[in-house]
Amino acid sequence: MKDEESGNRLGGYLRARRELVSPAQAGIPSGGNRRVPGLRREEVALLAGISPDYYLRLERGRDKNPSPQVLASLARVLRLDDVERTYLLGLAAARPRAPGRMRPEHVPARVHELLAQLPIPAFVEGRAFDVLASNPLAVALSPRLRPGHNRLRSLLLDPEEQAFQQDWTKATADFVAALRTTVGDDTDNPRFVELVGELALSSHRFRTLWARHDVRGLDGGTTTVHHPVVGDLRLHRDKLPVDDVILVVYYPDRNSDSDERLRLLAALAHTDTADTVPDGPADTHRS
Fold first, then answer.
1. 139 membership: H or E segment, kind and range
2. What is each CA distance from 37 to 17, 29, 41, 54, 92, in whole angstroms?
């Protein structure tokens, strides 16, 4: 995280991605004693068609304005996908920003009304995966979906959430990469600084993943979770932007085993009168 603290995010990203490309992937014989994982700086420079000295200046933050052609060559050598290439271009185009200010994330009243009507687990999250509002079935699915919890913190630090995820390893990798994508050049945002600092101190898994500089979207997909009462649930996930926040919904295939189990969970949740009213507005992000 030293590069991020010093403002050399481009150099940190290049180094992290270089270390993840094996010589074999780059068509380079892997014999001999290699003291670094992945590719050497001079190998990246050779494959990208630039001088080793210039590439060294890029990694050390001495040149922060590479041309689009150089970036395209580096993206090819580092085997970046479309999301990673876009992220690299964004790092090179970033300009100094005024100090960030924490802006409250507000859940519109109409979204609270929508949550109350939806017959599937649904909740609202902020940019840093803070749960801002949720309906009773979401809380029945996972108590960590109550407003005030942070989904990434729960995933990394809460043993119950770790048991809830069928593939915790993949889930953590996806969430951390999505957080880095969301942060973008908003690195001085107090909420991001607070969350990244907390997780860097408390989670070895987070430190390992954050150092990889992986980036990807987490817009949708399918996941399987293990509920302690109704068992395994295979659920689709969709994320719908609403103003400055995200509405997240989970739903099963119609007439599937997961559909039947989710209906059972809804019936069990309905018997608890304390959960028959959706959680009220909550713009806080602290647990």
1. helix 136-141
2. 10, 14, 11, 21, 24
pLDDT beyond 70 at 274: no
Q: Are strands 220-227 and 231-242 parallel, antiparallel or unpaired?
A: antiparallel
The whole-chain average pLDDT of the chain stands at 87
CA dist 160 and 252 (Å) reads: 22
Taking the C-alpha atoms of residue 176 and residue 260, their distance in angstroms, rounded to an integer, is 32
- Matching residue, tokens 């600084």: 193
Q: What is the largest CA-CA distance in the chain?
A: 69
Other beta carbons within 10 angstroms of residue 219's beta carbon come to 12
Q: For residue 34, what pLDDT is reported? A: 75
Which residue type does 145 have? L
Walk across the sheet containing 231-242 and list its strands: 131-134, 122-125, 245-251, 231-242, 220-227
CA nearest neighbour of 81 among 221, 215, 171, 208? 215
Contact predicate 206/200, CB 8 Å:
yes
User: Which tokens is 160 given?
Assistant: 């119950």
Q: Whose CA is closest to 74, among 30, 36, 29, 41? A: 41
Angle at 84 between CA 79 and CA 85, to 5 degrees: 80
Q: Across residues 22-47, what is the average pLDDT? A: 85
| Whether pTM exceeds 0.70 | yes
- 282 has pLDDT over 50: no
Paired tokens of 166: 């069928």
**Alpha-carbon span 199 to 152, nearest angstrom:** 9
Task: Give the Å distances, CA to CA, from 39 to 21, 71, 74.
Answer: 6, 17, 12
